[in-house]
From TrEMBL:
<keyword id="KW-0812">Transmembrane</keyword>
<dbReference type="GO" id="GO:0000139">
    <property type="term" value="C:Golgi membrane"/>
</dbReference>
<dbReference type="InterPro" id="IPR040911">
    <property type="entry name" value="Exostosin_GT47"/>
</dbReference>
<keyword id="KW-0333">Golgi apparatus</keyword>
<keyword id="KW-0328">Glycosyltransferase</keyword>
<keyword id="KW-0735">Signal-anchor</keyword>
<dbReference type="GO" id="GO:0016757">
    <property type="term" value="F:glycosyltransferase activity"/>
</dbReference>
<protein>
    <recommendedName>
        <fullName>Exostosin GT47 domain-containing protein</fullName>
    </recommendedName>
</protein>
<feature type="domain" description="Exostosin GT47">
    <location>
        <begin position="94"/>
        <end position="372"/>
    </location>
</feature>
<dbReference type="InterPro" id="IPR004263">
    <property type="entry name" value="Exostosin"/>
</dbReference>
<comment type="similarity">
    <text>Belongs to the glycosyltransferase 47 family.</text>
</comment>
<dbReference type="Pfam" id="PF03016">
    <property type="entry name" value="Exostosin_GT47"/>
</dbReference>
<keyword id="KW-0808">Transferase</keyword>
């Protein structure tokens, strides 16, 4: 029977032989690649020149214009969920990712130009400026992976535009792009994105259903209990720049004698509870109002330098610029918000440099913080210093800063778009 089948189908044996050869070749190739990769990672030349064997340096030369082409994988800190995957994907992003910006719209009104690069909504302005200063920009839409819709709701807000008129302006602008260009209709907007830091800007886009359903929304108010779609949308860090004082470093732990600090307006339920429960506590420095400038210059900012844990309760939205203030000044942030998709949460392991609590934990806040040992705090603080570069905007942008982290999030999302 077997010989008969072979005689009747001579091609079958050849095909099986070919498939076996290809499978063997694939296995050998994969084995060789794995061996070479591991060998390069463990070769003496790949270790840090400082002699710290916990840090591996991977060199590459995709862009000759950059001088800092080394990536440090600090395995001891473990601030990334998967350091090797992040760095390899990041390298690919730098060499391949292209964004097309629609050129339409009067730059003197609401399009293409940010309102300003200061204040708690400055992240929107920085992104608008950074994308034009980066290597990711392309003027050829056929080469683009994603399309940026450059309309600034923050700029509209600054000009006094009402929420209702914002919604109309956004809808009319997008409808114009859809009529003029073919790119939106290929995916109904799935390969398009817009950026807005002001929460009003998020609501202003709701006049066009596909902006909510399909387009990638890069926003500063990423709450799970509003139409924010995790793993499609991107959490934009809210950064209050320029910072008034320098970064808090890794050598200032002994100066941090205050257990916890918060001062701000009671514009949310959780802030009201926080102030009511803890404002008279002797170990927590809690104030239900912002510190008056009349007391002295930069008193509020200087408190971050002397505090171990900075309490970050949500305000009118779950997000707060206080989180990135804490990171910048080296004060371990205590996230006290529900339903918050933290910036870069799928890249960074926030529990390695922050304390994540639900709002109901406010009643046991001091007990929770006091249970954190000195060794655990030192680890949190050291990791916090390592992530500071990811929460800093620069002009022009530099590698691994906030702009590049947002671009990496967009790079991850473009892979799921097929057309």
């Amino acid at each position: 029977m077997s010989a008969s089948k072979t005689a009747q189908h001579p091609m079958s044996s050849s095909l099986c032989s070919l498939q076996g050869s290809l499978l063997t070749l694939a296995i050998l190739t994969l084995t060789s690649f794995t061996y070479l990769s591991l060998k390069s990672l463990h070769s003496p030349s790949s270790f840090s020149p400082h002699g710290n064997n916990s840090s591996i340096s991977i060199s590459f030369h995709k862009h000759d214009s950059d001088s800092d082409r080394d990536l440090d994988l600090d395995r001891a800190s473990d601030i990334y969920h998967s350091p090797s995957v992040f760095h390899l994907n990041y390298m690919e992003m730098e060499s391949k990712f292209k964004i097309f910006i629609y050129p339409d719209g009067d730059p003197k009104t609401f399009y293409q130009t940010p309102r300003k690069l200061t204040g708690k909504y400055s992240s929107e302005g920085y992104f608008f400026q950074n994308i034009r200063e980066s290597r990711f920009l392309t003027h050829d839409p056929d080469q683009a992976h994603l399309f940026f819709i450059p309309i600034s709701c923050h700029k509209m807000r600054g000009k006094g535009t009402s929420y209702e008129n914002m919604t109309i302006i956004v809808k009319d602008y997008l409808d114009g792009l859809i009529m003029k260009y073919p790119y939106w209709n290929r995916t109904l907007g799935a390969d398009h994105f817009f950026v807005t830091c002001h929460d009003v800007g998020v609501r202003a886009t709701e006049g066009h259903p596909f902006l909510v359903k399909n387009a990638i929304r890069v926003v500063c108010s990423p709450s799970y209990d509003v139409p924010f779609i995790p793993h499609k949308d991107v959490a934009l860090p809210q950064v209050l720049q320029p910072f008034a004082l320098p970064r808090g470093g890794g050598d200032d732990i002994e100066n941090r004698t205050v257990l916890g600090f918060w001062a701000g307006h009671r514009n949310s339920k959780i802030r009201v509870i926080l102030a009511r429960v803890w404002e008279n506590d002797t170990e927590l420095d809690i104030s239900n109002n912002r510190i008056s400038r009349a007391i002295g210059p930069l008193v509020y900012q200087k408190r971050f330098y002397t505090t171990k844990f900075c309490i970050c309760p949500g305000g009118s939205q779950v997000n707060s610029a206080r989180i990135t203030d804490s990171i910048h000044y080296g004060c371990v942030p205590v996230i006290l918000s529900n339903y918050y998709d933290l910036p870069f949460n799928d890249i960074l392991d926030w529990r390695k440099f922050a304390v994540i609590l639900n709002e109901k934990d406010v009643y046991q806040l001091k007990q929770i913080l006091k249970k954190i040992t000195d060794e655990e705090f030192v680890s949190l603080h050291k990791n916090l210093v390592k992530v500071q570069k990811h929460f800093q905007w620069n002009s022009p942008p530099i590698r691994f800063d906030a702009f590049h982290m947002v671009m990496y999030e967009l790079w991850l999302r473009h892979h799921v778009i097929k057309y």
